[in-house]
Write a structure and sequence with these properties.
This is Cupin domain-containing protein. InterPro entries: Bacilysin_H2HPP_isomerase (IPR052535), Cupin_2 (IPR013096), KdgF (IPR025499), RmlC-like_jellyroll (IPR014710), RmlC_Cupin_sf (IPR011051). With about 100 residues, the protein is mainly β. It is built from one helix and ten strands, in the order ββββββββββα. The chain has a six-stranded antiparallel sheet with strand order 1-2-3-10-5-8, with no helix packed on it. Strands 4-9-6-7 form a four-stranded antiparallel sheet, with no helix packed on it. The termini are close together.
């Protein structure tokens, strides 16, 4: 369970902070050490990720795309995805509907 507004470790070298959600939309900041991975997973939520800092390789449904500071990427509902930080990086992830799994 995530505590709103508090940093927690998600995977080795990856920490996140979930912001107060709305009724159908939520955001979280995710910080990565260089080389850290966000493990492959999927969820029914649509996701947009904005790269605040660094460079991240996204693997979405078997296709790799690299985004850098100031760029965004869209992850469709139920698409398997994971990431690798190519350098120290920070993402702002936005989800709709709310990721109840992160709040319970």
């Amino acid at each position: 369970m995530s505590k709103i507004g508090q940093w927690e470790y998600a995977e080795p070298g990856v920490r996140r902070k979930v912001f107060q959600p709305g009724t159908g939309l939520m955001m979280m900041e995710v910080q990565f050490e260089k080389g850290a991975e966000g493990y492959e997973h999927s969820h029914l939520h649509e996701q947009m990720s904005y790269c605040i800092k660094g460079k991240i390789a996204f693997r979405i449904a078997g296709k790799e795309t690299i985004i850098s500071e100031g760029e965004t990427i869209y992850i469709p509902s139920n698409a398997k995805h994971g990431v690798t930080a190519l350098e120290e990086s920070t993402l702002l992830d936005t989800f709709t509907p709310i990721r109840e799994d992160l709040l319970k």
